[in-house]
Structures are given as structure tokens and as C-alpha cells.
UniProtKB/TrEMBL annotation:
Pfam families: GDE_N_bis (PF14742), MGH1-like_GH (PF22422). Residues 26-218 form the Putative glycogen debranching enzyme N-terminal domain. It comes from the Bacteria. The lineage of its organism: Bacteria, Pseudomonadati, Myxococcota, Myxococcia, Myxococcales. Coiled coil: none annotated. This is Amylo-alpha-1,6-glucosidase. Residues 307-609 form the Mannosylglycerate hydrolase MGH1-like glycoside hydrolase domain. It comes from Pendulispora rubella.
Length: 728
């Protein structure tokens, strides 16, 4: 039998599906945890369960046992604001020898978990509902494997570091590992009250519970890189205090943005979960206001993901965009470093902490192998200007914008043909450097791989949009000649692009040009992002829009990354037939840009319908591209991140596309304009109310009502000077 060879070295290995494990996720700052439905951490399924900090798993097992048995699950959930995991379990029938000692349902255990300041805090509240005294042994089994997240993903290592001898007192245990990078990573487990027995792999409480007696047990698991011996013993942190602090932080973060409420309760749930996920993916991160890309595989800053998430969420909360721009400006490449695919002016792809990154076993410690983050950085800077008018911040950012534009001209166009291409320099880096970065994602009509350098269709659109937005910004900053030059370059690129990428017989744009300038003539969702950028001529935009909504591309749940019938089509693949919510949101905005609001509403409806079948109404990173079947939900992708930042933000961008909501400059900079361009709402939304929407120095409340042929826009409240314009 021939052995299957995995060409993509950064493929996420899967021997089981996350869809049959049904996990819960918590995150705070650089720490996240993946639990099963019992609130346990077990080495099962895809094996990603655990407590992680800075890219390392500090706890690989945490299992609750009652008299040596796994309890019976009554139910579990994560609070709507993502601050707390709650689990209700009870005793099964418990025997001592052959004698039934405790009937099922006799003891109730309420289990809660939350994360704060690189620690997981757990509380067990145990109640005896028996009419007699019972003996109950409560055990927490634990272990720490200190696996790097890339090891969890499937990377095999020739050598690892050393496990150190455990250290303990009567109420705490410290496990530790010294990595090959010289860093000691410690897991400190503190118990309150002190347990009956504490060993290197378990906490045991021998309880004698009187009828209706309640007992509370607490454990805190702290992740401590480079701390040995552990912190000096201190009083156990009270669970309620930590919970109150976590909830307050969430409330403060959500207050920074506007509030959106609609006539559809289920859509409200979708919006609230998405907003809570974005807060969770951002809260506590050392990179201020920067959303981490997703849990579990991408809980770290990604350039492209951060930019697109901030763009999707910009109308709700522009502080995220400011945070993303600030961090990416501070990490912008200053020199050539082939092993990192870095060049002067290039914007970060991703950054990683952990043993493998420190040792260079993976190239992602600080990695720049992306062709699109640099023009998208400029796009976000221009969009932030239109949204806020914050010229003081943007004046300081302008040198970074200029460096990004210089990279486009000097390094991005590898062969001088006017298009931006990529070809990796790092032998360990990504072969494909667009957003579809799996190794088999760029190919010709016959399925053969395209040889580089690769010029992706949507990337040319990003460059076009970057130059248009940079021209607007240059004009606002007083750089008039620069603004004129940038607009001229954008128009030239638009004409050149249309000639090289349009495929008349396919009714869409080619996926890419290969190194020989041969178009990859396949129908992909990339064409929708071409529309988003505005580089397409209107007549071709109309044809491409129709092609995207044909059954080969539109599954009923969204637009597929690759149309059915193309050579490499596989609805279960990562990029060749799956459905990505953020991709669909950009497509929807592109369709709205050219006036196809009926198609925009259709995409919002499809993604909303899909969310109704997802846990917590949370749109995942992606799902499978199988055709929609009556009375059935979409098919989940086995190792998708959930939550994923740009998927969470997509619902806000889809709604914005339908409303035609934008922010436009006026001759008076102190009187900004809020604009609704042909607003439309799908049939499931009769009303949308937007409260506390900040526009410049003003705040406005807007009510939108769906009518038979249009949408009415009413200003409910206005504090400060702002112009509200509507085109019906």
C-alpha cells in the first residue's frame, strides 16, 4: 500500500473530529483553555484539550472523579459574555464492593471555571441531597505535558527537554519542565481548603457529607514561564473576586462599541455571541486591543486576520483598528531576513511564543510570509481615517504607510509587470502566501499546481484599494502631489488588471497568474474579494456576482471557496470547496458596492441560517461546502477554530453591507457624516436599532425599519454635531 505523504508541513493533523468531542473554550490574554462538556481536560479526540499559555500546554489533564467514577453530566454552558464555564454533574450509582452505597442523582456538583492573569480558577460546590450521611471521595486527576501548540497540531520532534521533579506543600503542587530553549515552564496548582491527599498527579478530598450539607472546594492552576522555584505562597485568591473582576473587564470592553439590537431574537443572540467572542479574543492581550486570530490553533496575533477583523468591526468599535494598526506598525519589517520572509516595509503575518519558535524549529517566531497583509494595512489605515477623522494618530502612522507602499513597489512586484506576486524565501515558510495558504490552493483548470511567482487576483484588488485609500489619506495630511500620483497608479492598475484577469467564458476573474503569466482559469470565491476592493469594472462585476451565486459556487449556506466541478473541488477541504464566513462577508460587501443588494441579503440570510445550527450561535472559522439539504444543518469542518476572530466579526460586516452604512468626510471636519446607501434588510429583520454609535465627537441612536421596497432611517437621539444622509 502506498504511504500518503502530507506535502503541507503546517497541516493540522486530525485523527478524530472536534465535532464529536463538543468542547468549551475560555480565553484571557495569552492563556486559553479547551474543556470537554464535563469541564474536564482529557487527551482524547484531536487531542487539543488543555490549558495553554504563550503557545505551550501547561495542563494536559484535569479530570473530576467521585468515588473513583466519572460523574453523570446534567448540563454545561459558557456564559453569554464568555467569562465563565459552568457544569452541573451528579453521582452515578456508586458501589462499595457489591453494595450500592450512593444512588444516582444523590449528590449535586456545580463546577465553574474561569481564566484570569495566566491562571485557571476552578470551584466545586457539592451538595448532599441524601437523607443520610454519606462518604464521598472527590478526586481531581491532573498532568502537564508542556507540548508546544505545533506539537499538538502534529509536528514531530527528535528531542524534547526534561521534566523536573515536582515540588509541593500541603496545599499546592508545582510541576515543571525545562525546555531545550533553556526556559523553565511551571504549573502551580493551589488548593483551598488543603486537600486530604496531594500527589504529583491527583488532588483528593475525603468528605463526610451530612444531609443537605454544602461544601466548596477551590483550585487555581497558574501557568508560569521561567519561574522556578514558584511564587512565594500567598492567600488563595477568592473565586468570587476573580469572577467579578473578569466580568467587569468584559463590560468595559463592550461599552467601547455601539449596541445593535434587532426585531429577531435569534439574530440578536448571534450578534451578542459574536461581540462577546471578539472581546474574549482581545481582552488581556499584551498587544493592546489586538484580536488574536482564533482558538485553539491561532491564539496569537496574525496580521491579515487582525486587519480584516478590525475592518469588519470598524463601524462598531474603531478602537480595535487603532490597536491593530499600532501593533503592526511597531512590528513592520525593517530589513531583509529570508528565513523569516521579511523585507523592509512588509507587515507581519504571525508571531509565536513557545519552545519551537524560540529554537527556530518553526519559522513563526516573527514571520512575514504573507503577500496581502501589507496592502491591507494601508487599506485599514485609510478606512480608520474615514471612520474617525483621527488625523493626529494617522500623521504618526504615515511613515509606516509610506514604507508599506514602498514594499509594494520595490519588493511586491517581483518581475516588474505591475502586479504584486509572492514566492517564499524561507525553506520552512508557507508556499502559498495569500489568505488561502494551504499548499494545494492555487492551480490551473486541469488541477496542476501553479508555479510561482504567483499573482493572486484579490491581492491586486487589495493593492488598488490601498492606493485609493492612501491617496485620500495623503490629501487629508496635505501631501497633495503624493495623492495625485497614487490615484493615477490605482487607475492604471485597474485597467491592467481587467485585461489580464477577466475570463469571459467563465464569467469571472482568474484565481491568479502563475510565473509564466498564465491565468489560473478556475471559479473561486477570490472573485468576490475582487469586487470588495472595487478594482472590477461594473460590467464584469455584474457577471462575476451572478457566477458567485450560481449553484456551483453558492451551496445555500454561503459561497464556496472553489466552485463545484473544478478539478480540485472537495467540500471537506480547507480551501478548495469549504465555506468561510469572513470570505462571504467580504463578498457581500463587494456585491453591495456594485449595487447588488438582493445578493447581499441572500448571503446574510444564508450565514444567519447556518449560525442557528452552531453551538452558541457561533460561526466557526469555516464549515464544509456540501449543498444545503432540507431540514438539515451545514456540515462542520473537523478541526475548525471556534471562536475565530474574522468569523465572529463577519456578522457585523454582513449587516453593514445590507445597510450601506459608511462614514464620509464633509467640507467641515467638525461635522462628520453618517451615510446609508440604499439600505435594505432581509425578510427576517423588520427592525434594527443602533445605539451609542460614535461619529467623530458625536453620538447617535438610529432606528431602521424595513418596508416593502426600502428601509426607513430615523434618528432617535443625537448628541453633538453629525450629518445623517440616506440614499433610497
Amino acid at each position: 500500500m502506498e504511504t500518503i505523504r502530507i506535502e503541507d508541513r503546517w497541516y493540522v493533523l486530525a485523527t478524530s473530529s472536534r465535532t464529536d468531542d463538543r468542547t468549551w473554550v475560555l480565553k484571557n490574554g495569552e492563556t486559553f483553555a479547551v474543556f470537554d462538556r464535563f469541564g474536564d481536560i482529557q487527551p482524547i479526540g484531536t487531542g487539543e484539550q488543555g490549558l495553554y499559555h504563550q503557545g505551550t500546554r501547561f495542563l494536559s489533564q484535569l479530570e473530576l472523579r467521585l468515588n473513583g467514577q466519572r460523574p453523570m453530566l446534567l448540563g454545561s454552558s459558557v456564559k453569554q459574555d464568555n467569562s465563565l464555564l459552568t457544569v452541573d454533574v451528579t453521582t452515578p450509582d456508586l458501589y462499595v464492593a457489591e453494595q450500592l452505597e450512593v444512588l444516582k442523582g444523590t449528590v449535586h456538583v456545580f463546577r465553574a471555571a474561569l481564566l484570569s492573569e495566566s491562571a485557571c480558577h476552578q470551584r466545586l460546590r457539592i451538595v448532599n441531597y441524601c437523607q443520610r450521611r454519606i462518604a464521598l471521595q472527590v478526586t481531581l486527576l491532573f498532568a502537564a505535558d508542556y507540548a508546544d501548540i505545533f506539537e499538538v497540531r502534529g509536528v514531530r520532534r527528535a528531542r524534547r527537554g526534561d521534566d523536573l521533579s515536582p515540588m509541593h506543600t500541603e496545599d499546592r503542587m508545582v510541576l515543571a519542565y525545562r525546555g531545550l530553549d533553556g526556559i523553565t515552564r511551571s504549573t502551580e496548582i493551589a488548593c483551598s481548603p488543603a486537600p486530604t491527599h496531594l500527589t504529583a498527579d491527583r488532588i483528593e478530598y475525603a468528605l463526610q457529607l451530612e444531609p443537605h450539607e454544602t461544601v466548596e472546594l477551590n483550585a487555581s492552576i497558574a501557568c508560569e514561564p521561567n519561574v522556578r522555584p514558584p511564587r512565594a505562597p500567598s492567600a488563595h485568591v477568592h473565586f468570587a473576586t476573580v469572577r467579578e473582576s473578569a466580568e467587569k473587564a468584559v463590560q468595559e470592553a463592550r461599552a467601547r462599541g455601539c449596541a445593535v439590537e434587532t426585531s429577531n431574537a435569534q439574530f440578536n443572540d448571534c450578534l451578542q455571541r459574536a461581540s462577546a467572542d471578539l472581546v474574549m479574543l482581545t481582552a488581556g492581550n499584551p498587544e493592546t486591543a489586538y484580536p488574536y486570530a482564533g482558538v485553539p490553533w491561532y491564539s496569537t496575533p496574525f496580521g491579515r486576520d487582525g486587519i480584516l477583523t478590525a475592518l469588519e468591526y470598524l463601524w462598531v468599535d474603531p478602537s480595535m483598528a487603532r490597536g491593530v494598526l499600532s501593533y503592526l506598525a511597531s512590528t513592520q519589517a525593517r530589513e531583509e531576513a529570508p528565513e523569516q520572509d521579511a523585507e523592509p516595509g512588509k507587515v507581519l503575518h504571525e508571531t509565536r511564543k513557545g519552545e519551537l519558535a524560540a529554537l527556530g524549529e518553526i519559522p513563526f517566531g516573527r514571520y512575514y510570509g504573507t503577500v496581502d497583509a501589507t496592502p491591507l494595512f494601508v487599506v485599514l489605515a485609510g478606512a480608520y481615517h474615514r471612520r474617525t477623522g483621527d488625523l493626529e494618530f494617522l500623521r504618526g502612522l504615515w511613515p509606516n504607510v509610506e514604507r508599506a507602499l514602498a514594499w509594494i513597489e520595490e519588493y511586491g512586484d517581483l518581475d516588474g509587470d505591475g502586479f504584486v506576486e509572492y514566492q517564499r524565501k524561507s525553506a520552512k515558510g508557507l508556499a502559498q502566501q495569500g489568505w488561502k495558504d494551504s499548499e494545494d490552493s492555487v492551480f490551473h483548470q486541469d488541477g496542476s499546481a501553479a508555479e510561482g511567482p504567483i499573482a493572486l487576483a484579490e491581492v491586486q484588488g487589495y493593492v488598488y484599494k490601498a492606493k485609493v485609500r492612501a491617496a485620500d489619506l495623503a490629501h487629508a495630511l496635505g501631501h497633495t502631489a503624493r495623492a495625485v500620483a497614487l490615484r493615477s497608479e490605482a487607475l492604471q492598475l485597474r485597467t491592467q488588471f481587467d485585461h489580464a484577469f477577466w475570463c469571459e467564458d467563465l464569467g469571472t476573474f482568474a484565481l491568479a497568474l502563475d510565473g509564466a503569466k498564465r491565468p489560473c482559469r478556475v471559479r473561486t470565491s477570490n472573485a468576490g474579494q475582487v469586487l470588495w476592493s472595487g478594482i472590477a469594472h461594473p460590467e464584469h462585476a455584474e457577471r462575476a456576482g451572478k457566477t458567485l451565486l450560481e449553484p456551483a459556487s453558492f451551496s445555500g449556506w454561503g459561497v464556496r471557496t472553489l466552485a463545484k466541478g473544478e478539478a480540485r473541488y472537495n467540500p471537506m477541504s480547507y480551501h478548495n470547496g469549504s465555506i468561510w464566513p469572513h470570505d462571504n462577508a467580504l463578498i457581500a460587501m463587494g456585491l453591495a458596492r456594485y449595487g447588488f443588494k438582493d445578493k447581499t441579503q441572500r448571503l446574510l440570510g444564508a450565514l444567519f441560517d447556518a449560525s442557528m445550527f452552531m453551538d452558541l450561535h457561533r460561526l466557526p472559522e469555516l464549515f464544509c461546502g456540501f449543498a444545503r439539504r432540507p431540514n438539515e444543518g451545514p456540515t462542520l469542518y473537523p478541526v475548525a477554530c471556534s471562536p475565530q476572530a474574522w468569523a465572529s466579526a463577519s456578522v457585523f460586516y454582513l449587516l453593514q453591507a445590507c445597510l450601506g452604512l459608511s462614514f464620509r468626510p464633509t467640507p467641515n471636519p467638525d461635522r462628520p457624516r453618517l451615510y446609508f446607501d440604499h439600505p435594505r434588510l432581509p425578510a427576517f429583520l423588520n427592525r434594527v436599532e443602533i445605539r451609542r454609535l460614535r461619529v467623530g465627537n458625536a453620538t447617535v441612536d438610529i432606528d431602521l425599519q424595513r418596508h416593502a421596497r426600502d428601509v426607513g432611517v430615523n434618528v432617535l437621539r443625537k448628541d453633538g454635531d453629525v450629518e445623517v444622509s440616506v440614499t433610497l
